[in-house]
């Protein structure tokens, strides 16, 4: 009884901390979205950037601001809300650590953003050496990572407190999931922190003259792949736990959800080589090993797909649906909290299939560095993940601000989701197609000296501009909805949906909470997959590279 | 004849309320999509390299 009365609403003070994260995230959506619009317009060949602004500068803005800022701030806020709701209100000390983390991240973000806007850091989203940015850019990124560790500490402390107070009990599912993602993030960010602090920062300050490019790229991708799962797992939290409650159904299995999260923790990190399949300096045998580990991540992804279909079908049949697909008709299509994330789930089918192609070792040659890859991650992070985050915002923002999602806003939210689906079909579809025809990614408009092959790509670039423009309209609509829910919607109570498992008597095995075991296996897998190739990269390194500023 | 119909109706009902047939077909569809895309790019790869 105590527990149920404790957690009806997220505490006001915790809500403020969450909303602070969301304000930054949605400002990032505006800035990054605008940069994206400019990119597709430039690439159509019909538009040139004014005032000497460079294409690669806005490309950096788009990637950093959406890929790193929007995602990290939204996720941190969302996970804080999920933990506060299910494990209880944060103590003052825990909340203070969270605020410190928020401000460190924000200061770092502003520092990095200013450097990009001053055109001192047009090193693209992946900031590969030997492209060299101003040292303040690297410092800013370091602060974002350090700040995120502080916010993560808040979650870890709350989890530990809950476990002490409830010995022998499995933690609440949402808290468990937020904790897994926090741990994965912490282990992964060590890689990017290492390359920035040990290599890039001293190099950009002129303390050392050259940098080992192979090592820096390897450390980046040690972080870069789990980064995409850091984006995805919060979406999975919403799919596994919140969507069942929103449609009025049940979670298919609590234990299955926990197991898939543990598998993501184990297999998301020792797989960075699948981004470096065409790089010299890494033995193909080690690439192959990491390809195999990458394919193991397919297992929890398919478990998730199965579990979601099962939730939908069980609910539909409980409402009297018959036939093979009658249950589809019973789903609440008029509810944006369901439909918008559902569009994201659908997008994840081609997104995941494309990812399997990308990771297939030799086959990577077909798509490597083509705009196919850009099309791919606009389906994963920029549709599956982002539409789920939008779907979460539709109820979480009013829940936190003590307002209601009105019928009118719900309708706008649906339109927003449909527009996104249409715009992304054009943009991502055209990117995939042009990529198969060889169109490069990360490159401004060019006719390549009138080459016949390059001329084939231009119609697809026009299609991307059409799709990108529709997406920008959807972004404006989303910002309007966010501002409405944060400041103007009528006062009221909006539910924080937390689903229940179909089988309430089934208690999740306690082995899932054995972090010594899971973190131990994680570390072992990382050491196994990385130690020897890493020694190779250092011992047999070519001469280091000086810094380049090509913009 | 009438009896047989009645019988089959009840059977469908029981099956329908807890069946996960649609889920099975759906995950097969996802698997099929993955295989088709993969094989398509695989032949492109063989063709080009
Ligand atoms: Cu990856």
Automatic annotation (TrEMBL), chain A:
> What name does the UniProt record give this protein?
Cytochrome c oxidase subunit I
Biological process (GO) annotations held by this record are: aerobic respiration
Output the Gene Ontology terms for molecular function. Answer: cytochrome-c oxidase activity; heme binding
How does the entry describe its membrane topology?
A: Multi-pass membrane protein
Q: Which UniProt keywords apply?
A: Electron transport, Heme, Iron, Membrane, Metal-binding, Respiratory chain, Transmembrane, Transmembrane helix, Transport
Q: Where are the transmembrane segments?
A: 20-42, 54-76, 97-118, 138-160, 172-200, 220-243, 255-273, 285-309, 338-357, 377-397, 418-438, 458-483, 517-535
* Superkingdom assignment: Bacteria
**Cross-referenced InterPro entries:** Ba3-like_Oxidase_I, Cyt_c_oxase-like_su1_dom, Cyt_c_oxase-like_su1_sf, Cyt_C_Oxase_1, Cyt_c_Oxase_su1_BS
Provide the primary localization: membrane
- Report the locations given in the UniProt record: Membrane
Question: Which Pfam families does this chain map to?
Answer: COX1
Family, according to the entry, reads as follows: Belongs to the heme-copper respiratory oxidase family.
Cytochrome oxidase subunit I profile domain mapped to chain residues: 16-551
**Cited SUPFAM superfamilies:** Cytochrome c oxidase subunit I-like
Task: Give the UniProt entry's GO cellular component terms.
Answer: membrane
UniProtKB/TrEMBL annotation, chain B:
The transmembrane segments are 24-45
Keywords from the UniProt entry? Membrane, Transmembrane, Transmembrane helix
Q: Does the keyword Transmembrane helix apply?
A: yes
Q: What is this protein called?
A: Cytochrome c oxidase subunit 2A
Q: Which organism is it from?
A: Robertmurraya siralis
């Amino acid at each position: 009884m105590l527990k149920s009365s404790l957690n009806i609403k997220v505490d006001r003070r915790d809500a403020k901390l969450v909303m602070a994260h969301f304000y930054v995230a949605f400002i990032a959506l505006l800035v990054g979205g605008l940069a994206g619009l400019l990119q597709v317009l430039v690439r159509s060949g019909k538009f040139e950037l004014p005032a000497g602004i460079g294409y690669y500068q806005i490309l950096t803005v788009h990637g950093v601001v959406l890929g790193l800022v929007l995602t990290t701030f939204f996720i941190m806020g969302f996970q804080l809300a999920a933990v506060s709701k299910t494990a209880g209100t944060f103590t003052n000390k825990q909340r203070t650590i969270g605020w410190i983390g928020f401000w460190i991240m924000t200061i770092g973000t502003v520092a990095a953003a200013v450097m990009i806007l001053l055109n001192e850091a047009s090193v693209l989203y992946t900031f590969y050496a030997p492209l060299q940015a101003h040292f303040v850019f690297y410092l800013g990124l370091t602060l974002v990572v350090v700040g995120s560790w502080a916010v993560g500490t808040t979650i870890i402390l709350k989890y530990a407190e809950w476990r002490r107070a409830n010995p022998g009990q499995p933690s609440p599912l949402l808290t468990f999931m937020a904790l897994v993602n926090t741990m994965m993030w912490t282990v992964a960010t060590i890689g990017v922190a290492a390359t920035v602090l040990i290599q890039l920062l001293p190099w950009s300050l002129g303390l050392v003259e050259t940098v080992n490019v192979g090592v820096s790229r390897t450390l980046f991708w040690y972080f870069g792949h789990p980064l995409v799962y850091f984006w995805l797992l919060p979406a999975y939290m919403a799919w596994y736990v919140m969507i069942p409650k929103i449609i009025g159904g049940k979670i298919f299995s609590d234990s299955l959800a926990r197991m898939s999260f543990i598998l993501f923790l184990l297999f998301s990190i020792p797989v960075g080589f699948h981004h470096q399949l065409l790089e010299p300096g890494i033995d193909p045998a080690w690439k192959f090993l990491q390809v195999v580990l990458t394919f193991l991540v397919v297992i929890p992804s398919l478990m998730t797909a199965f579990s979601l279909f099962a939730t939908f079908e069980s609910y539909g049949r409980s409402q009297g649906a018959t036939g093979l697909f009658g249950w589809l008709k019973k789903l609440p299509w008029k509810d944006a909290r369901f439909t918008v994330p559902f569009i994201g789930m659908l997008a994840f089918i081609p997104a995941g299939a494309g990812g399997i192609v990308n990771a297939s070792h030799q086959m990577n040659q077909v798509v490597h560095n083509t705009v196919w890859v850009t099309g791919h991650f606009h389906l994963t992070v920029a549709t599956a993940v982002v539409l789920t985050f939008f779907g979460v915002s539709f109820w979480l923002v009013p829940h936190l601000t003590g307002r209601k999602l009105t019928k009118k806003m719900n309708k706008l939210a649906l339109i927003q989701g449909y527009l996104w689906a249409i715009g992304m079909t054009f943009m991502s579809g055209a990117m995939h197609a042009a990529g198969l025809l060889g169109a490069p990614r990360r490159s401004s408009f060019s006719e390549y000296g009138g080459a016949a092959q390059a001329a084939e790509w231009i119609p697809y670039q026009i299609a991307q501009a059409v799709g990108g423009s529709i997406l920008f309209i959807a972004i404006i609509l989303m910002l309007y909805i966010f501002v409405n829910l944060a400041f103007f919607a009528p006062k009221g109570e909006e539910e924080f949906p937390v689903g229940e498992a179909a089988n309430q008597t089934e208690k999740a095995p306690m082995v899932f909470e054995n972090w010594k075991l899971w973190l131990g296996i994680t570390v072992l897998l990382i050491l196994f997959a990385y130690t020897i190739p890493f020694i190779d990269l250092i011992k047999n390194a070519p001469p280091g590279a000086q810094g380049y500023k090509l913009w | 004849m009438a009896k047989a119909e009645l019988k089959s109706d009840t059977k469908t009902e029981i099956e329908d309320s807890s069946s996960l047939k649609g889920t099975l077909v759906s995950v097969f569809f996802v698997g099929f999509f993955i295989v088709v895309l993969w094989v398509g790019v695989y032949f492109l790869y063989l063709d080009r390299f």
